[in-house]
Amino acid sequence: MQTTSSQLLFEKAKTLMPGGVNSPVRAFNSVGGTPIFIKKGKGAYITDEDENQYIDYCCSWGPLILGHANENTEQAIIETVKNGTSFGAPTALENELAELILSNHSYIEKMRFVSSGTEAVMSALRLARGVTGKSKIIKFEGCYHGHVDSLLVKAGSGLITLGESTSAGVPESFANETIVLPLNDEEAVAATLEKLHTEIAAIIIEPIPANNGLLLQSHKFLLHLREMCTKYKVLLIFDEVISGFRVGFEGATGLYKIQPDIITFGKIIGGGMPVGAYASSHAIMNHIAPLGKVYQAGTLSGNPVAMSAGIAQLKACLHTDFYHDLQHKTDRLVDGIKQHIETKGYEITIYNIGSIFWFAFSNMSHLTRADQINSGKMSLFAKVYHHLLENGIYFGPSGYEVGFVSAAHTEQDIDKTIVALNHAFDTVLSG
């Protein structure tokens, strides 16, 4: 496979941007080699600057649930741009997208648009602190909530300890407002809330943790969070930036039928454009300025181009059998890989929910915590990754990242992927 153009572009990029990228994982540090520079995408396929074509399971890290350059989404963007790109003033499109979401999501009553998932989480935390008058937050090891200062932390040394920053530039005082607990551990949650509930504003969790592997939580644990938050007057925040509209229109909230106090969204509601949102009840959202004392603003919030793309995409998601068809495709992919793995006796497990999937070099049937991931096996993923690239399959360039199936993937695409993945496993694991 020829990648000369990507190599030249990367060398140039490194003189212009830190590490040559605008988001660290794109640098290919986890898998080695030179990142490929993408020129265009259509349907389930992307094409790099050297005209190599790949079946794409990254889907821009999830938001392209309809695939690349979807005709309806593309047309909506073009027609909107003809009227301008940004006004810094209200538009009817904001009303239309908000009404589309709220009228089809029974767990929220009011929402505010922002420009990214990180911004949505940041705003949700500020709202939770404003509503409760308390400052500390509980998060979970293995959940990623964007690059918010107080959430770029890892677990401390004890059961009930404050977090330790995982990034330079985050003041210790910020990290000290965050308590990090293990996932799927009811006792740790109960003990922490019993001791510190008067200081804790909210618990935030990805109900489907999908940023550090796919760490599927038990329904019982998520219910426990709801019960504990209610008992101790702590707000429960579901970060559905990835799972929202991906595992169903109501996301993990609807799938598990658990009512959080605040939900954060991103990715899919922008149809590939930069967008995020946070949502809650009327009572909680009315604490946001200009109605309340919790300030949050953004020049590009509710940007008309992003709104129009989101409207087009989410209307498609509401079609009958949309999620059923996505599930069918994902099951076809997962089953095809599982059969081969079981036949060969490989120590690989495929985890999936809805149209999200992830494979780990592990034989654990239920992997629920970050510390259960065997980091020593990530070198195997790097080898598999490059075999896949050579065979025209594109995943996110890290063994910790999940894959996504889109409506644009055909059964033929799925079957080709099964063959390529199984061949990659054979090459790497059988020598």
Fold and architecture overview:
This protein has 431 residues and is α/β, with parallel strands linked by helices. The chain folds into two domains: 4-69 and 320-429, Aspartate Aminotransferase, domain 1 (Alpha-Beta Complex), CATH 3.90.1150.10; 71-317, Type I PLP-dependent aspartate aminotransferase-like (Major domain) (Aspartate Aminotransferase, domain 2). It has helices at residues 4-14, 71-81, 92-102, 117-132, 172-175, 186-196, 219-232, 251-256, 282-285, 304-317, 322-344, 378-390, 411-429; strands at 38-42, 45-48, 53-56, 110-114, 136-140, 153-154, 164-165, 178-181, 200-205, 235-239, 262-266, 276-280, 349-353, 356-360, 393-394, 403-404. A hairpin with a 4-residue loop joins strand 2 and strand 3 (53-56). The two termini are 21 Å apart. Residues 155-161 have low confidence and may be disordered.
CATH architecture of the largest domain: 3-Layer(aba) Sandwich
Strand order of the largest sheet: 4-12-11-10-9-5-8
In the residues, how many domains can be counted? Answer: 2
Number of strands: 16
- Described by the principal axes of the CA atoms, the overall outline is globular
Please work out how many helical segments DSSP would assign: 13
CATH superfamily of the largest domain: Type I PLP-dependent aspartate aminotransferase-like (Major domain)
CATH class division of the largest domain: Alpha Beta
Helix content: 25-40%
**Beta-strand proportion:** 15-25%
Give me the strand/helix succession: HEEEHHEHEEEHEHEHEHEEHHHEEHEEH
* Rg over C-alpha atoms, rounded to the nearest angstrom: 21 Å
CATH structural fold name of the largest domain: Aspartate Aminotransferase, domain 2
Mean pLDDT: 94
Through-space gap between termini: 21 Å
Task: Profile the largest sheet.
Answer: 7 strands, mixed
Low-confidence stretches: 155-161
Assembly classification = single chain
